[in-house]
Design goal:
By secondary structure, this protein is α+β, with helices and mostly antiparallel strands. It contains two helices and four strands, in the order βαβββα. The longest helix has 9 residues.
Length: 80
């Protein structure tokens, strides 16, 4: 897994804050299952925030860009 995209003014990962007490920006991360929205720190990925996985990084980036808008196109996970 590796960091791929961080927005200039990204939303904060809700699960990272709720479960770990840290405010980290949402970013597009990758795994064997595909791309997802999550957070990471100096030790690596910390939380998977999106319910969805995307096969294409561009689709995950597009979803990230809709965060905190009326047209948000992804679902926030409620549990780690």
């Amino acid at each position: 897994m590796s960091q791929s995209t961080v927005l200039a003014n990204p939303p904060i990962g809700k699960l990272a804050e709720q479960d770990f007490g840290v405010r980290l920006p949402l970013t597009v991360l990758g795994s064997q299952k595909g791309f997802y929205l999550g957070t990471f720190d100096e030790e690596g990925p910390l939380s998977r925030e999106s319910v969805e996985y995307w096969a294409d990084e561009a689709d995950a980036i597009a979803a990230l860009k809709t965060s905190n808008t009326d047209a948000q196109s992804w679902a926030q996970r409620t549990e780690a």
